[in-house]
Amino acid sequence: MTLSCSARWLACDDARQVKAVDLRARELIVVSAIDPKRGRASRSGMGADIDETCLRVRPMTEPDLGAVLAVEELAYSFPWSKGIFRDCLRVGYCCWVMEHRDLLEGYGIMSVGAGESHILNLCIRPASHGHGFGRRLLMHLLETASAHRADTTLLEVRPSNAHAISLYQSVGFTQVGVRRGYYPNDEGREDALLLAIELANLKGPTHA
Length: 208
Ligand SMILES: CC(C)(COP(=O)(O)OP(=O)(O)OC[C@H]1O[C@@H](n2cnc3c(N)ncnc32)[C@H](O)[C@@H]1OP(=O)(O)O)[C@@H](O)C(=O)NCCC(=O)NCCS
Prior knowledge:
27% helix, eight-stranded mixed sheet, alpha+beta, binds coenzyme A
């Protein structure tokens, strides 16, 4: 089985610990509550094409998995399986979908426990890249982590994934390590950069 973002970590996770902090979202979040003007200028004019009144982030549910998997398979060469998403829901990871005009534009999956959160997947529908969805969803995950008293957020990213690295650095993530041979690629394995942010140092649109 080939996996995309941080599934190897997921497989090693102590689900009992994560379950203790059940972060499945409990409320709908209207993303327009985040004021884009407080963020840095965006190459895409962050949200220029977004109708704020039709944008929301809500908890992912089992019936979303078909649409989620369709985006996953378009976005990654080594996508997660439906079973992995189902496990994320089952163990109580923080699983969100972002919808714009009722279309699923992306999703984010994160675990939180013991003062630390770990973004396991952040993905936007490829046709919608560069419109500000990814930044908004990332901020939402970080705000959620903060609301659950995490101090730090970690994630892995492929060194070849320049767009994602640029997004993460722009909000304050820095590299704290390398995980050797972490990801599958066409030649075999590829390293992952391990990035981290102290949530107190978060840049851009901030916590509500
Ligand atoms: C990474 C990803 C989530 C970004 O989502 P997005 O909606 O395209 O990103 P946004 O439009 O919010 O842009 C946010 C930032 O990403 C970076 N970025 C986006 N498009 C870019 C491009 N064409 N060139 C360079 N950087 C780009 C920029 O830093 C941008 O900030 P700016 O708009 O202030 O310049 C998206 O590309 C994606 O889903 N990729 C496939 C899945 C993936 O690789 N996920 C990360 C796994 S670790």
